Amino acid sequence: MSWLLLAASATALTAPRRTAVAPRAAVALQGRSDAQLKRGIAEFYDESSGIWEDVWGEHMHHGWYEPGEKAGTMERDVAAQSTMIDKALELCGAADVAARCEAAGRPMRILDVGCGIGGSSRHMARRFAGAQATCVGLTLSPEQARRGNELSREAGLDVTLEARDATNTTFADGSFDLVWSMESGEHMPDKAKFVAELGRLCAPGGRVSVVTWCHRDLQRGRKLNAQRGVTARGVRDWTANIAPFWPAVARSSLKWSSLKKLRKTGLKTIRGAVAILFMILGYKLGTVKFVAVAAAKDEAPGDAKWAWSGPVF
C-alpha cells in the first residue's frame, strides 16, 4: 500500500550517506554500516510487499498528476502510477532507444534498479514489445524477486528479477540500453557509487533515468559528477505532480483491512509507518523534493560527465 512506499522513503532519508547531506542528520546517524542498512531494507520489503500488492497492485511508487488535478478513485490513482512510468520514459527518450534497437534487429536491454515486484519492468517490456525488450530487475528483497518472477511468468514476459545489490553488480560495461531507477536512489547509502554504476552499465547511445526523493539543494551550484560519457538531458521537479497521491495514501492506510494487515507485519513495517510523519514534515517544509533526472550515454568515449546541479539525493 502507498503508505509503505512513503515509510520506506522516510526511513531512507534518515540513512547514512557518504555524499553531502544535512550535517545534523549525518552526525546523528553515524555508525550504521552499509550491510546493516541494506539488510534492513530487504527485511522491510520482505515483510511489507505483500500488503502493498493487496491494496495497490504491482506498482510500488507514486502516481503522477497534471497540475491542479486531485486524487480521485482508486482506479484513477493506480492509473497515475502507470503515468509516472510513461512520463519518466518520455523525459529520458527511451522510445528513441527502442527504435534504434528495433532498426538494428536486436532486443532492447533494460535494467530496472530497485524493481520492487517488477511492475515497471513489465510495463516497459509491454510498451517496447516491438523492440523485443528484455528486462532484468534488481532488488535487495528475495521475497520481491520471488513474487515478481511469478507475475512475469504468468504474463509471459521476458522479465527476470534478481535479489542482488545494485551498487555492486557483475554485469559487463554497457550491458543495457536503458538503465532505470524508480524511487530507489534514496535507499542507496553511497550515492556516488550508485550513480557511477548506472553510468557504467549504460551502453553507448543509451539512456539513464533516475526518479527519486531528494534533499533540497543545500549548496547552490553543487554538482554530482560521475561516470564519464554520461550527460544530463533534463532535470524535473515533480514534487507538486505527486502531491495528489498523498490523500490516497491516507485513505488506504486508514482502511480497516489495511490496519488488520499492518498488525500482522513485523516491527520494521510498523516503525516505517510512523516515520511517514517525518516525510510529510519534510515535504511541507520543502526540505525534500521529488525529482526526475534523465541522462544519455555518449556514442563514443569523451569528456562529458553526468553533471547535476539539482537537489542532492
From TrEMBL:
Family according to the record: Belongs to the class I-like SAM-binding methyltransferase superfamily. gTMT family.
Region (SAM motif II): 174-182
Organism name: Aureococcus anophagefferens
SUPFAM superfamilies linked to this entry: S-adenosyl-L-methionine-dependent methyltransferases
Residue ranges occupied by any Methyltransferase domain in the UniProt entry: 110-206
Record's protein name: Sterol 24-C-methyltransferase
PROSITE patterns on file: SAM_GTMT
Record flagged with keyword Cell inner membrane: no
CDD domains, sorted: AdoMet_MTases (cd02440)
Keywords: Methyltransferase, S-adenosyl-L-methionine, Signal, Transferase
